[in-house]
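Entry 14. Ran structure prediction on the chain below.
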Amino acid sequence: QVQLVESGGGLVQAGGSLRLSCAASGRTFSTSAMGWFRQAPGKEREFVAAVKWSDDSTYYSDSVKGRFIISRDNAKNTVYLQMNSLKPEDTAVYYCAAGGRLAVSTVIRRTGWYDYWGQGTQVTVSS
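Output, structure tokens:
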């Protein structure tokens, strides 16, 4: 089992920045990638960003590319999501996720690929 705990959410004005953290514990060696997803009220959970352990490849949704950066600190078993130039439409609950299957770029964007999920952290961007 892998446990994931997100932190860093909050209220920020449009144009501002936030950094989310996801601390992993347990059988982290069994994972091959971690990702961030978000879910706004009344909408489906959507992919935001992901990073593969094998080669540090990163992936982003079109809506956040150029504004968000995913990174990791191996020593701390922590993945970060730096969010810049935030917009009101970025408002959502942000979830961290981890998976251990073959990390192929096409499937790593799907919620079904991930085995473990955090509890989520609220990000609210005011206009």
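The longest strand covers residues 18-26. Will compare against last week's run tomorrow.
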